[in-house]
Amino acid sequence: MSQTLFTAAQTRELDRLAIEESGIPGFELMCRAGDAAFASLLTRWPGLRSITVCCGKGNNAGDGYLVAGRAVDFGIEVELLQLEDPAALSGDAATARDWAVSRGVQIQVCVQQVPVPGGEVVVDALLGTGLTGSPRGLYADAIEALNQSGKPVLAVDIPSGVSADTGAVAGAAVRADLTVTFIGRKLGTFTGAGLAAAGELVFADLGVGTEVMRRVVGVPLLKLDDLLEQPGLPERSANAYKHALGHVLVIGGDDAMGGAPLMAAEAALRVGAGMVTVATRSRHRSAILARRPELMVVDADDDEQFTGALSRATTLVVGPGLGRRQWGLSLLERAIAQKKTMVVDADGLNLIADAGLSPSAPVVFTPHVGEAATLLSRSVAEVQADRPSAALALAELAASGSGSGVSVLKGAGTLICRSQGVSQSRLLGVCGHGNPGMASAGMGDVLSGVIGGLLAQGMTPADAAAVGVAAHSKAADDAVIRTGERGLLATDLLPELMRLLA
User: Which terminus, N or C, of the chain has the lesser number of Cβ atoms within 10 Å?
Assistant: First the structure.
């Protein structure tokens, strides 16, 4: 992958390798970080006349002092707010403090109260990647002062209050306009609340070579172009025919929910499945065929029709509009009994949780956070507090019946995980596309159809999930160029999907 994400511990290991094995002194790395942050500050806010730098007591503060010193050299007025005693700084951070003071930076020590920042832009150098728990006391007050100031904020390495490992915000967190992150991209700034808190992300490798980066195994940031360069989605041969491209059966659409399986089914067609059938309430047939005559529709209540559709399908997509009544449960149970590769979404997931079912063939679970909470018997807040661990637990749950499962934990920074048993579970990646316009009805239905259509064409569950999620989100990014975010509809993604996966 062209970009890799790291936890706090992995980033510390990158620092150690750069210092001990590449021979880059720690203070030199800190100076490079300060220079990168200051350069980004000038690029984003040209003509800047004054800044406020807020410093804590760790190496993150050292970066802040270096930014302050560079700003004074550049003729920018600097207000530096130091929480607690600046004499408590040690090591490279203390060296940075002394250098900044030698440049003329004056330190305003905040012991009981943090004033409203006076600079045009605020630099957040309060808390770095070593944060555990929630900011307390003076640090929580400082974060609140930054957020209430109305001033734009540049966060150094990571917004204070955001977990570098999970993206969770346990209490107060800085809402940055720009985050300049160093050496390794932080996993927590690419998923959950951390993604929103970070604002625009700028990465500076500080001259740490690729040989060091390869020594630490992080998590890929999944971008569609990178994924399509790898083997997975098969080329169509000159003599391709529909039966060789898979037959997807979409099961769902209880009363008043006929649109959900239609969107999933059309998405499966649009990404290249040879044939797609919808098993649903008979009253939905006319509307589905009027919208998309290329689909086949069977009455899910007709035993002969439904049994035939199950036997002909190569891949199942169960859940869009399925509901949580006995009707949906019986269809899900019959689908699981087929022992065919399947995607389970929406109420299919809720029914699995309700009834304690375990698919006995490879399966892809695609829950949003509420469905994930139901499956894991956790609260929504608990899932969001550690999205990576929740995604791993979901993959293990998906694998519980067949020994092989994939989870797609949807949301800001969608996570894809694979499990082949508890000891072999791993995070496959974080989606590098997507936008807030995707908070719209039907987006998940389209995604389930996309993954189902890719599975039908022979992709593995892990590859289909990764490519499907990336293509779905990239299609949304491309669609908003035409439509804007506010009015984006799930079906607006279909033309973009066709183009991206052509």
Answer: C
